[in-house]
Amino acid sequence: MRASAARPRFRRMPHDHDHYHDNELDPMAARAKALETILTQKGLIDPAAIDAIVETYETKIGPRNGAKVVAKAWSDPAYAERLKKDATAAIASLGFTGRQGEHMQAVFNIADTHNLLVCTLCSCYPWSVLGLPPVWYKSPPYRSKAVIDPRGVLAEFGVSLPAETKIRVWDSTAELRYLVVPMRPNGTEGWSEERLAELVTRDSMIGTGLALEPQAA
Amino acid sequence: MNGPHDLGGQMGFGPVAPEKDEPYFHAEWEKRALGVTLTSGAMGHWTIDESRHARECLHPADYYSSSYYEIWIKALETLLKRHGFVMDEEVAAGKALGSGTTPKRVLKAENVAAVLAKGGPCDRPVEAPARFEAGDRVRTKNFHPTGHTRLPRYARGKLGVVEAVHDGFVFPDSNAHGGGENPQRVYTVVFSAAEIWGEGADPTLTVSIDAWESYLEPA
C-alpha cells in the first residue's frame, strides 16, 4: 500500500513510501520509536498496552457500533426518543461507552435539515461509536471548509442535497461528541435491525454521506 | 491562541479527497504513535487541554506539513520533556540515559479495556444558576488570548442564539495551563452563516459551537 493517497495533497513527502524496517526508518517512524523505547526502558509505559489499544480500535471499536445505534433508533421509536433525550445513556445501553464518547448527543437528519459534524480546532470525534477518525476528518481541507462551504464538501463525497435543504454544521468545540442519525431509506419497512445496520455507513453518521439505498447494500 | 489549528473558514488547502476503504492506520508507526500517546497520557501528568495546546503550539509551517499522528508525536515530545519524563539527549540518542519524573501510574495491558471503557468524563458540578437559557440571544466575546481557548476565531464577536444549556465542564482556557478546572456551564450556540461569513453566505446554513459561559455576553 502506498501512503501518498492517504496524505493530504498539500503535503510534500520527504519519502514516498510508508513501509519501514529496522535499519531504514522513516524519520517520523524513528521519532515515534525513540519515544516508545525511552519510555519503555524507564518503565513508564507497557508496550503490551499499546498492542491492546491498537487491537481495540482495529477490531472492537469502530463505525459498526454507531450503525447498531442508528438501526435501533430507526426500528424502535422509544429508543429513538431516549437517544434524543440522553444519547450517552441510550448508547451505553448497547454497550458502547468510554474514551471520546463520554458526553454524547445524537442529531437527527429530517426531511428539511441535514446535519454535518466537524472539529475545526483539532480532531474531536465520537470514538465510542465511530472508532478512530479518518485522515480527511483531521486534515485542514475538511476542517477549514466544512463550516463555510458544506455543500462544496458534500459534493466531494458525491452528495447533492436539494437547494432548499437546511444544513446545520456542528463544530465540536467542547467535550460533547455528536452522532448523526441519517434518515432511514425508503423501501426498508419490516427490515431487521441487523439488516438495517448494513445501510448505515460511517460517513452517514458524520453527515458527509447518506444511508445506503436498499439496492446498494 | 490564534494558532495554525484554528482552521474554520481558511482557504487554499485543496480538496478534502476522501480515501475509499481507508485503513485505520497508514503505517505501522502510526499504531505506535496512537498507543504511546494514550499510554503516556494515562500516566496522569497532563490534561487533554494541555495536550491540545501543545499540538496547536507547533509552528504553523510544521503543523500544516504534518499528518495528525505526526502532530501527536511532536506534541508528545514537548509534554514528556516539560514534565521531566524525557530529556533532549535521550530523544537524540533514542534510548534512556537516566531517570526522570516518577509517574503517578502506569497503564498495564490488562487494564486497557477498562480504562478505555471508562474514558475521562469532563463534566463537573456547577453551583451557580445558568446565566443563559435556550432561546437567549448572545454575543460571543471578541478576544485573542495568547493561551489556549476553544472559541474559534470565526465565531468571535458574533451574534447567536442559545439552543441548549449543558452541564458544567472543565474550562480548557485555564486547565490547559495548570490553572485549575474552574468548571463553567457549556451552551450550544447557533449562528446564521450570514452572521459569520457575511456577503454571499449560504442562506440555508447555520453553524453551532459549544461555548463555555464566559465566552458569551447577553445581546
From TrEMBL, chain B:
E.C. no: 4.2.1.84
Catalysis performed (reactions): an aliphatic primary amide = an aliphatic nitrile + H2O
InterPro entries: CN_hydtase_beta-like_N, CN_hydtase_beta_C, CN_hydtase_beta_dom_C, Elect_transpt_acc-like_dom_sf, Nitrile_hydratase_bsu
Nitrile hydratase beta subunit-like N-terminal domain span: 1-104
Superkingdom of the organism of origin: Bacteria
GO molecular function: nitrile hydratase activity; transition metal ion binding
Swiss-Prot/TrEMBL keywords: Lyase
Family: Belongs to the nitrile hydratase subunit beta family.
Role summary: NHase catalyzes the hydration of various nitrile compounds to the corresponding amides.
Protein name: Nitrile hydratase subunit beta
Native organism: Allomesorhizobium camelthorni
